[in-house]
Amino acid sequence: MRLRFKMTSAERCRLMDKAYPSRKQKHCAGFLASLPACILFIAISPQVFSAITLSHAEALRIGKRIWQNECNGTVSGLTSWNTGEDFASLGIGHFIWYPEGKRGPFEESFPKLMKFVSDRGADVPSWLRNARACPWQSQSDFQRAQNSPELKALRDFLVHTVDLQAQFLVDRLQNALPKMLEETAPSNRVHVQEQFQRMSSSAKGCYALVDYVNFKGEGVLHTERYRGEGWGLLQVLEDIHGTGNGSSAVEEFARSASAILTRRVKNSPPERNESRWLPGWINRVNRYARDW
After folding, report:
1. Using an 8 Å Cβ cutoff, are 110 and 90 in contact?
2. Residue 52: helix, strand or coil by DSSP?
3. Cα Rg of the chain, angstroms
4. Which pLDDT score is estimated for 19?
5. Of 37, 93, 96, 269, which has the fewest Cβ atoms less than 10 A away?
6. What are the DSSP E strand ranges found in 41-109?
7. Cβ distance 250 to 204 under 8 Å?
8. Average pLDDT score over the chain
């Protein structure tokens, strides 16, 4: 699978329409020049599927919606620590970063993002380059540090790398299908592959896939299970069975995602009190079918 963006010269350095520049132009030009077409090639041996093409405007729309979904489109939302969680949630995708010595059932993604943006020439704050783990041990520590030089520098860095964060999210979707096919039962692989192709045949469906895999993961980690049942993209694709493309596919995907998330909450440990999050989760996936 390969994913590329094609942008006109006028569109370069404009991944996000906001009051802040996406990045310094010398970094932005280098990044965007490496993304000539938003084409997702799905090639699962022995069958090769047709390319799926997204315009730059469609790709830009997806990036904006992720930022809105996770951070309400705000700069302050780029650095968060949710009540009841043991990790910071950072960037447009609320990428997880655990403190030293702490781990949980959810995949840690912020260090992967940092490597991704650093490899592409981002000017990473010095304290962040040297950090092996999240330096704040708890939500209260994090809140007390909101006006610290470190968190101010982190927010500034995240504002100026929104383009790279969007690319990171799309790359994650790009790499998700082979992992999902490896994890699902052999007898189910053709079905999962077909449902992925069905969803990704439209920009609206691609947005749902990108957002959900960032929102609730790929569904391949056995640590991301309650009572043996997952809630990631794989589980949603396994659950849908339609054949129509476009809006009908997205509507079925939204219904399935809602059911999978409801099951997660029912299976979750009572002390996590995940029912408080469910209405927001359901509203988010329901918007896939109506807000494109």
Report:
1. yes
2. strand
3. 19
4. 34
5. 269
6. 43-44, 47-48, 52-54, 79-80, 88-90, 95-97
7. yes
8. 83
